[in-house]
Design a protein that fits this description.
Elements (H helix, E strand, L loop, with lengths): L5 H9 L4 H15 L11 E3 L4 E2 L15 E7 L16 E3 L2 E2 H16 L4 E6 L4 H11 L1 H4 L5 E3 L3 E2 L1 E2 L16 E2 L6 H7 L2 H7 L4 E6 L9 H10 L3 E7 L9 E5 L5 E4 L9 H4 L7 E10 H11 L8 E6 L9 E6 L13 E4 L11 H8 L3 E3 L5 E3 L9 E4 L7 H7 L10 E7 L2 E2 L4 E10 L6 E2 L3 E9 L29
Helix pairs in contact: 2-6
Length: 493
């Protein structure tokens, strides 16, 4: 199909979108109109045979590198899938601390401990900017006052699925735009001027991760490895398991032997079996990335002001809530896909503890419990009492899809999970800090009324609350608790 980018450029310029973002979008647009499917055939790649494991690194931490390093958190998500209407990173995860509290405290503690001035940045979206900046101004005014704390994610037009012209929604113009994916990191760095500013300040290394991944901390040993290896780009990977088989994987492109990232949207149906073969394609991207900023600048300058990333094509409707509305194509890119653009890029295997995103209420309940603790450096780690294995959580995904439902179920506190191997909950229940789950515990409630879990220890048992009569004015069947009594979650902090 022959289609002109001019209407897209005009629309983006009229809305004040940065030239770097326009150029990056034009690159993916040209891939689309050229007939590029965005697919990566199995026949064009080779599995990655082996990688260095972080545990095998025998390097002393070099704290002098911290003054040349910036930590950037991707903070554009609202967490709408969990029923949130503000930045997901402002959700409380341990006591009164949010994701951003813990991240800010990690940075401040590192500065204090090592006498360094490691820089800190956020890539916000227009949806998360106001809430996030207000949070920092109130709680961390020192960080809020630092130049360059925030960098805004760009936006790109949705395209008519037939003509590839900018889509139109006469009822809501906001529906005509979509986020360009976290691959926009590079265009945002260029367009905001932050890339040049960081380089001018002597910053050479950038560590990027998602704000909801509390396992992604600035690790001095990994930083030392990245610096001494002289790699231009390094991706943290984990070993794939059966639970990861539908996610993207690392591979080697046959044509030039570059490392590449193949996402599920880039896999054709006929290659699905190979894509999901975790013994063949063993490593997945954690989205924890290390970037040499001077090398990024070289690529940007060589490419004309942007970094050319592979296209991810999504078929949608212009109004996401109306399946009968205009059919559109949304183009996006993944920041990890930039690994193919860097000569000398590498990857490293990291422990699973560095990949602990909170995507569902299962994850949130576990994180809030005593199965996880906060270290003096404000990192979140598995409680040693768990013996190195986190409890398996299987919470009713229909009843507890939204955070509000989990909040209601734990209004009287978070149960103890430190000695739990597996917790299964089906139906609506009410738990408290007086519940202690040990071994494998299964709780079922087939009724439409939320039922209270009895206080005390439940060990290796199945509890059916369906026909249990819920007592009035009483939280637990055996103990009357003052409904006005305050609950101090700090007990389990």
């Amino acid at each position: 199909m022959t289609a002109s980018f001019a209407p897209c450029r005009a629309k983006m310029e009229a809305d004040g979108v940065a030239e770097s973002a326009i150029s990056a979008f034009e690159s993916t647009f040209n891939l689309l109109v050229s007939g590029e499917s965005g697919m990566i055939s199995e026949s064009t790649i080779t599995p990655v045979p082996e990688l260095v494991h972080a545990d095998s690194i025998d390097l002393a931490p070099d704290t002098s590198l911290l003054d040349k390093t910036v930590v950037l958190k991707l903070n554009g998500g609202l967490g709408t899938g969990m029923g949130l209407d503000k930045a997901k990173s402002l959700l409380k995860v341990k006591g009164d601390d949010t994701f951003l509290d813990l991240t800010a405290k990690q940075v401040l503690k590192m500065r204090e401990s090592f006498g360094s001035q490691v820089k800190f940045m956020l890539m916000n979206s227009f949806s998360t900017s106001d809430d996030t900046l207000a949070f920092f101004q109130e709680k961390y005014p020192g960080l809020a006052a630092e130049e360059g704390l925030e960098m805004l994610q760009n936006k790109v037009p949705k395209l008519d699925a037939t003509t590839f012209e900018p889509a139109v929604d006469p009822n809501n113009a906001a529906n005509e735009w979509c986020p360009p994916g976290h691959g926009d990191l590079y265009a945002a760095l260029v367009g905001s001027g932050r890339l040049d500013a960081l380089l001018a300040d002597g910053v050479k290394y950038m560590f990027v991760s998602n704000s909801d991944n509390l396992g992604a901390t600035l690790d001095l040993k990994i930083l030392a490895h990245f610096a001494t290896s002289d790699a231009s780009f390094m991706m943290e990977c984990c070993q794939r398991t059966e639970n990861d088989k539908k996610g993207g994987h690392l591979a080697i492109r046959n044509s030039d032997k570059h490392l590449i990232l193949r996402e599920s949207a880039m896999c054709a149906d006929e290659d699905e079996a190979d894509f999901q073969d975790i013994t063949k394609h063993q490593f997945f991207n954690t989205n924890n990335l290390w970037i040499r900023l001077d090398k990024l600048k070289e690529i940007v300058d060589k490419s004309g002001g942007f970094i050319p990333l592979p296209m991810i094509k999504n078929n949608k409707t212009v109004d996401p809530k109306d399946d009968a509305s205009q059919k559109v194509v949304q183009l996006e890119t993944a920041m990890g896909a930039a690994i193919e653009c860097f000569d000398g890029a590498s990857a490293i295997i990291v422990p699973r503890t560095r990949f602990a995103p909170v995507k569902k209420c299962n994850d949130l309940l576990l994180l809030r419990s005593d199965a996880y603790i906060i270290t003096p450096e404000y990192t979140t780690v598995l409680n040693p009492a768990c013996g190195g294995v986190a409890p398996v959580m299987s919470i009713d995904s229909k009843k507890y899809k939204l955070v509000a439902a989990l909040e209601a179920a734990t209004k009287k506190g978070i149960p103890s999970l430190v000695n739990c191997k597996k917790l299964t909950i089906k139906g609506l229940v009410k738990m408290s800090k007086h519940n202690i789950f040990v071994g494998e515990v299964s709780i079922n409630n087939a009724s439409d009324v939320s039922k209270t879990v009895p206080e005390g220890v439940l060990e290796d048992t199945t509890l059916d609350l369906t026909d249990v009569e819920e007592p009035e004015n009483c939280f637990a069947p055996c103990t009357v608790i003052d409904p006005e009594e305050e609950w101090n979650e700090d007990t389990y902090y």
